[in-house]
Amino acid sequence: xxxxxxxxxxxxxxxxxxxxxxxETLTRRTGKRFPMPRFLELCQAYPPTGLVIxxxxxxxxxxxxxxxxxxELAALLAQRTxxxxxxxxxxxxxxxxxxxxxxxGGRTRGRKPDVDALAAAVLLQHFxxxxxxxxx
Length: 136
Description:
- By secondary structure, the chain is α+β, with helices and mostly antiparallel strands.
- The chain has helices at residues 36-45, 65-81, 93-103, 112-133, and strands at 7-13, 20-27, 51-55, 85-89.
- The chain contains four helices and four strands, in the order ββαβαβαα.
């Protein structure tokens, strides 16, 4: 999950937890709650074994207001789903997604939801790759 104040990009992995794929972008109106009903529908359609939530740290690697909000969301999702949660540094995930689109000659203008879902896939892929390289 690529967390944002307005858009939340979602991605899923294959059954072997090797390849991440963009899924959908949820939209939250300013000042409104997380779109939990749609998220829970997606959890039923694509049953996860856990959730990886992007942690928007400051450039210095510290918690700011966005990171604290992401931590609160992680706690809420853990409570609502009963799934294990991993928080993962999401710095540069959107920039990497934009770079991937541009490398392939694509345009990003007017495609914010696509970019956010791709950023979630970039984040999840980084998490999966790291876990394979550095098993616990």
